[in-house]
Design brief:
The protein is about 30% helix and about 20% strand. It is of the alpha/beta class. It has a single domain (about 1-314), classed as Metallo-dependent phosphatases (Purple Acid Phosphatase, chain A, domain 2), CATH 3.60.21. It has a six-stranded mixed sheet. Strands 6-7-8-9-13-12 form a six-stranded mixed sheet. Strand 12 and strand 13 form a beta hairpin. The longest helix has 14 residues, at about 1-15. It is globular and about 60 Å long. The N and C termini lie far apart (about 50 Å).
Length: about 325
């Protein structure tokens, strides 16, 4: 009990007591909240009968095995992005982007991820949230599997929390080597230059992001990268001057029609922002299709992926 109190005290110092209380209260309510709260009216991850219905429908049509195989066919994508005022020393810097692992839903995916990423030549790793599949209940299996992935990475790792994540994930995953950015900004040194990296708490369900706070720690006219679980805050991110925004959350639809057309996006933003590279004014963005699955461990016309972002001087 004493150790738990110490953990909450440390978290309160980092995020503020009001923020911590808000998140803890909403975490208790999250599992039962199907309608209301957050940026979308319906929270499909809390509709308990939906995964069961999808599972048996796929079984009935003999498609479950195919969808499960698709969900394990992890791809590695490359995305080059030209950033204004990027120091020449940062030109060519490579960032590995992982999102939406949900490893408690399919622990077998852990070894597949490790096999894909262990030999990638990258300078920095970033995680954009959702480490578990459920939004409540025991989280130790998800934390344990995510820790294995983090420990397999050789480059420094930074991450943010998603709408499936509890703030209690922070201490054990930081112990594994994943440094969380809880409405915080850090300067990452590379080739003698600084890359400013900011991360906000979940903006989708918890609406706990503080863009003003993180932007205040970025020097004027310095390019900065924002980690946000969901792309839904892209307009504000552009307004405060971020150069690049990396997100996840949407799974690019997960179950799509032929051609990758998503049936559901679970995000209150334009569909052009729910997968791959996009742009809004001066802000470059990228929404990861995600590594894992939500609800049911299947994918159709929407392969899972990790992405290597290569920074270029515009």
């Amino acid at each position: 009990m004493r150790q738990q109190l110490d953990i909450y005290s440390e978290l309160a110092e980092r995020v503020g007591e009001v923020h911590l209380r808000q998140r803890l209260v909403l975490q208790v309510e999250h599992a039962a909240q199907v309608f209301g709260q957050g940026r979308t009216l319906l929270h499909i991850e809390n509709v308990e009968w939906l995964p069961v219905a999808i599972y048996w429908t796929l079984r009935l049509f003999g498609l479950y095995g195919l969808g499960q195989g698709n969900a394990r066919a992890l791809e590695v994508h490359t995305n080059e992005v030209a950033i204004e005022e990027l120091p020449s020393a940062l030109d060519g810097m490579r960032l590995l982007h992982l999102s939406d692992l949900h490893l408690d839903l399919d622990p077998g995916l852990t070894d597949i991820i490790i096999d894909r990423v262990r030999d990638l030549d990258v300078d920095l790793c970033v995680f954009t949230g959702d480490y578990r599949a459920s939004t409540s209940g025991p989280y130790e299996p998800a934390v344990a599997q995510t820790s294995r992935v983090v420990e397999a990475l050789t480059a420094p790792s930074y991450g943010v929390l998603g709408n499936h994540d509890f703030i209690e994930f922070v201490p054990p995953l930081e112990q594994a080597g994943l440094r969380f950015l809880l409405n915080e900004t850090v300067a990452v040194e590379h080739n003698g230059a600084s890359l400013y990296l900011s991360g906000v708490d979940d903006p989708h369900f918890y609406r706990a992001e503080s863009l003003e706070k993180v932007a205040a720690h970025v020097p004027a006219r310095q390019p900065a990268i924002l980690l946000s679980h969901s792309p839904e805050i892209y307009r504000r991110a552009a307004a405060v001057g971020f150069s690049l925004m990396l997100s996840g959350h949407t799974h690019a639809g997960q179950i799509c029609l032929p051609g990758g057309v998503p049936i559901l996006t679970n995000a209150r933003c334009s569909r052009r922002l729910i997968k791959g590279p996009w742009r809004h004014g001066a802000l470059h963005g990228y929404t990861s299709p995600g590594v894992g699955c939500s609800g049911v461990p299947v994918r159709f016309f929407c392969p899972p992926a990790v992405t290597v972002h290569v920074l270029r001087s515009a």
